[in-house]
Every structure is written in structure tokens, then in C-alpha cells.
């Protein structure tokens, strides 16, 4: 049986049949992964464009499995959502991010941490309690924690979602709408939802330095965000020329491989080299 498992883990994932087998193995391995600390968080710097400083990071979940190798969140988050494990996984992520933010604060290099929240965590109705308990457990000021939600997160039960987000924001936690420019993006929801920030999806940013239409599109989203008092973050910035366009458009924050890849905490520099670039 053990041999069979190993074989599945090594099967070519581009083959549909083996992708299915890998998904099945992911589903079976997930509970063990949570129990055995196979999860870690990596952190990707969020660069303040005007100053070049990196006062915040986004926490991104990583899973290294002995059989499956590195399992990407795009492979296992939806599995965790379907199995209901997302609630335990999500609580672990929030708690781990708070613990790390506390370590940074204690070391004299405070960084706010942004945590991705699944639609199902918001739908469960206890997100405020889960977050406040973690803050309390680690003695972390709310100003050092932010969350990122997606629009589908909000629309399952809009009144409940709005009430929870309002409570979080009034306690000092930033709430950004993630992946703006994909699937369900609508300007009216943007106006309705309690938010402090907007993250423009990588697909939006990819061509801003090569295609004037996409630059115009981003400019108009940026103008709407500004009118609504939202801080703007551009995702997936890979080229200096993209950063130049974003700076010209007045975008607040840049995130992407140009600045840094997601890194384990030990590999994040204390003072960011980019702090001298602006
Ligand atoms: P996301 O929230 O949109 O996160 C950004 C993704 O883009 C990350 O992928 C990041 O590694 C990648 N990225 C950042 N900069 C660049 C760039 O310049 N170029 C390219 N090509 N990619 C870049 P990752 O870490 O694989 O995460 C994928 C998705 O999985 C995330 O997308 C998020 O939706 C989800 N996810 C990750 N961690 C968690 C978590 O703790 N909880 C939940 N619910 N979802 C998570
Ligand atoms: Ca995100
Ligand atoms: Ca995103
Ligand atoms: Ca994205």
C-alpha cells in the first residue's frame, strides 16, 4: 500500500487520470498534514511604492509532503474547502501569522501580516471571534493584522459578511478585496462592502506596460478605489516597467517577484534593500 502511495505521488501531473489520483491523495493526506506540521507559511513583501519600504507582508500557505512533494495552495485549498478542513487550516494560518507578527514586533522589525481568508471562513460566522482570540493569545495589536477576502466570500450571505467586516475594520484590522479584475468583480459591490483596500489581480497588471488599453483600465479602477478611500495594491509585478506605470498611476503598494518571492521568515531581510530604491 505504501508503495502504491509513493507511485501516485510521482505520477506526471499533466495527465488527467493521474491528476485525479493526486487530488485523491491530497484529500487523504490533508488531515495528517495539519496534524504533523507539514504546513508552513511563507511571507511575500508588500512594497510601499512612494517610499520603497516593505512595512507589510502577505502570508502564503505551503505544504511539503513526503509522498506528494510540494503541494501548491491552488491544488489543496479547494480540497480543504470541500472537506470542511478549511476551518481548521484557516484557524492555524491566522494563529501562525499572529505568532510570527509578534516575533517581528518583539525583534524591533514590526511588519503587518495579511492573511487570505476563504469564503467559507466568512460564511461560518465566527471569523471575528477566531481572529480576536488569536490576537489576544499572542498579544498582537490589531493594526499588525490584515485580511484578504474574495468577492465570492461576501456574496453568500452579504448582510452577515458586511457586519463581520465592519466589526473587524472598526477594531483596526485592514480588509482588502483580493483578485480584483477576475470572475465576479463589480464596481457596485466595491461600493457596498466594508473595505480598506483593493488588490488588483495579476492578470490586470500583466500587460500594463505593453498595452495601453490595460493601463487605461487599471487607471480607472485606481480612480474608483481612490474615490472610495481604498488603498490599492498591484499583484504579480515582475518588471521594472510595470512598477513605473503603477507609480505614475498613483498605486499605493506593489507585490510581485520583482520585489521578492514569498520567503520563509528566516530569509526575509530586516531592512529591505528596496527601501533605498524610491
Ligand atoms: P493570491 O492570494 O492571489 O496570492 C498571490 C499568488 O501569486 C501566490 O501564489 C504568490 O506566490 C503568487 N505571486 C506573487 N507574486 C507573483 C509574481 O510576480 N508572479 C507570479 N507568477 N506569481 C506571483 P500561491 O502562494 O501559489 O497561492 C495561490 C493562491 O492560494 C493564493 O492566491 C490564495 O488565493 C490561495 N492561498 C494561499 N495561501 C492561503 C491561505 O492561507 N488561505 C487561503 N484561504 N488561501 C490561500
Ligand atoms: Ca491574497
Ligand atoms: Ca490575490
Ligand atoms: Ca491572484
TrEMBL record:
Shown residues in whole-protein numbering: 311 to 588 of 599
Domain EAL intervals: 23-276
The name this protein goes by in its record: EAL domain-containing protein
Coiled coil feature spans: none
Amino acid at each position: 500500500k505504501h508503495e502504491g502511495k509513493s507511485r501516485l505521488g510521482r505520477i506526471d501531473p499533466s495527465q488527467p487520470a493521474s491528476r485525479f489520483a493526486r487530488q485523491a491523495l491530497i484529500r487523504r493526506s490533508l488531515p495528517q498534514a495539519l496534524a504533523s506540521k507539514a504546513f508552513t507559511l511563507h511571507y511575500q513583501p508588500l512594497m510601499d511604492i512612494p517610499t520603497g519600504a516593505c512595512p507589510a507582508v502577505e502570508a502564503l500557505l505551503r505544504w511539503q509532503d513526503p509522498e506528494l512533494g510540494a503541494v501548491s495552495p491552488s491544488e489543496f485549498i479547494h480540497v480543504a474547502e470541500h472537506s470542511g478542513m478549511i476551518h481548521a487550516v484557516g484557524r492555524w494560518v491566522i494563529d501562525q501569522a499572529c505568532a510570527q507578527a509578534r516575533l517581528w514586533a518583539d525583534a524591533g522589525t514590526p511588519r503587518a501580516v495579511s492573511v487570505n481568508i476563504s469564503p467559507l471562513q466568512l460564511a461560518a460566522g465566527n471569523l471575528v471571534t477566531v481572529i480576536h482570540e488569536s490576537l489576544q493569545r499572542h498579544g498582537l495589536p490589531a493594526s499588525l493584522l490584515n485580511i484578504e477576502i474574495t468577492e465570492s466570500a461576501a456574496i453568500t450571505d452579504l448582510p452577515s459578511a458586511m457586519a463581520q467586516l465592519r466589526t473587524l475594520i472598526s477594531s483596526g484590522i485592514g480588509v482588502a478585496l483580493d483578485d480584483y479584475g477576475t470572475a465576479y468583480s463589480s464596481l457596485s459591490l466595491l461600493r457596498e462592502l466594508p473595505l480598506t483596500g483593493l488588490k488588483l489581480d495579476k492578470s490586470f497588471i500583466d500587460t500594463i506596460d505593453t498595452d495601453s488599453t490595460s493601463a487605461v483600465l487599471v487607471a480607472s479602477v485606481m480612480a474608483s478605489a481612490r474615490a472610495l478611500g481604498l488603498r490599492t495594491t498591484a499583484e504579480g509585478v515582475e518588471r521594472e516597467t510595470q512598477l513605473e506605470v503603477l507609480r505614475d498611476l498613483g498605486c499605493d503598494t506593489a507585490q510581485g517577484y520583482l520585489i521578492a518571492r514569498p520567503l520563509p521568515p528566516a530569509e526575509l531581510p530586516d531592512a529591505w534593500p528596496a527601501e533605498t530604491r524610491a
